[in-house]
Amino acid sequence: MTSLLDPPAAHAAQTSWRRLPAGQQPSWPDAAALDAAVTALASALPLVTARECDLLRARLAAVARGEAFLVQGGDCAEELDAVNAASIGRTAGTLQQLAAVLGYARSLPVVTLARMAGQYAKPRSSPTEIRGGVELPVYRGDAVNGHAFTAAARTPDPHRLVRVHHTSAATVNLVRAYGAGEHAGPGQVLAALREFTDASPERDRYAALTAEIERAGGFTGTGDGWHTPGELFMSHEGLLLDYESALVRLDPATGGAYATSGHLLWIGERTRRLDGAHVEFFSRISNPVAVKIGPSIETDDLLRLIGRLSPEGEPGRLTLVVRMGAGKIRDVLPGLVERVTAEGLPVAWVSDPMHGNTISAPSGHKTRRFDDVLDELAGFFEVLTGLGAHPGGVHLELTGDDVTECVGGGDGIGFGDLPARYRSVCDPRLNRGQALDLAYRLAELLDT
Ligand code: PEP
Ligand code: MN
């Protein structure tokens, strides 16, 4: 609890990270323009409220206790000029359909969390990109610069931060409207699953589960008093600290500082260093937070990270998003889970089966094999279940649109199909059919 003698929590959250090394921040060419953008954001309206963030934290506490399952997903990178109502509706719908399948398969209430309304900044492996002898700054997401390979597009422009806020506010507004409206009802979701099953080359394989879900009436957990089907929370990687800290607001009711750009923010694999600015910033906000962990993490560093991000050990505060790769998860994850469990640290374990399984297609497209994604998920469930811990959920890059970015799945998309509808400006997403294939196949695996 903050006492009146403490410096206001919001001020600390906005400033303390500035003393520390901040990875993956753009070199903004125009300091005055950055100041203007940050000033505009500092008085902008919040996208979410502190009480909603608290509600998500309570939902995630149920995940950490093994009493609920998390379905998190959306674009790798949203695009300011491409965002549109139909696509938002399709992606939100896909998340609800996944929630229905996986909630039924796990017999658990589902927490649904979109990677949406703020997922505009990307960590990159190199600061520049060379093409045909020309070197330009790398694309860092629409919050920073444009994707086109021209000097003008690639120059970081701080005004984009203000556009991200506006566009994210409009996105949140639309999702809330869909969530409250007829689109979100169990009837819609069941009809969508029925339509998917009937049209699928795998319909014989999926029909029995679809019928069972229909008999059960869709969502599990609706009767226990807390799960509402239209409830969809918003999340993104909290990468750009100027943006995130400008949107921190003090919650008068609790004295806590909340990041108001989304309900949950996560720290990426590349910016989770213990002595870095991101961990410092995240340690000062009261939202539920997550951190991505890859195969190189040392157990002691993970324990320190948990200590920094969740010093009070409150369930729901911290979610660990594991992204090891199908070939590594069964070797690397057990030691981590054993130690965290032995120390009695209440975290939610979630699998991101996407980021450890990225490959290059012969055409040069970045892609992922459906079978690798499913195999990493299977490994995640094997490890957690085998150790008596709770496999708490999935974190997927997906879209409701009919793109061709990942290979495999029921429709048998091959390398040669990728150019047809490869739309992602960053990592490859599962399309709606592939995402549902994954849910059905996972349900089948978990049933055997
Ligand atoms: C991402 O989620 O798009 C991402 C960059 O992930 P990670 O930090 O796990 O590499
Ligand atoms: Mn990605």
TrEMBL record:
SUPFAM superfamilies tied to this protein: Aldolase
Pathway(s) this gene product operates in, as recorded in its UniProt entry: Metabolic intermediate biosynthesis; chorismate biosynthesis; chorismate from D-erythrose 4-phosphate and phosphoenolpyruvate: step 1/7
Keywords: Amino-acid biosynthesis, Aromatic amino acid biosynthesis, Transferase
Catalysed reactions, semicolon-separated: D-erythrose 4-phosphate + phosphoenolpyruvate + H2O = 7-phospho-2-dehydro-3-deoxy-D-arabino-heptonate + phosphate
E.C. code: 2.5.1.54
Pfam family, one: DAHP_synth_2
Enzyme class at the top of the EC tree: transferase
GO molecular function: 3-deoxy-7-phosphoheptulonate synthase activity
UniProt similarity note: Belongs to the class-II DAHP synthase family.
Protein name per UniProt: Phospho-2-dehydro-3-deoxyheptonate aldolase
The organism of origin for this protein: Streptomyces andamanensis
Lineage of the species this protein comes from: Bacteria, Bacillati, Actinomycetota, Actinomycetes, Kitasatosporales
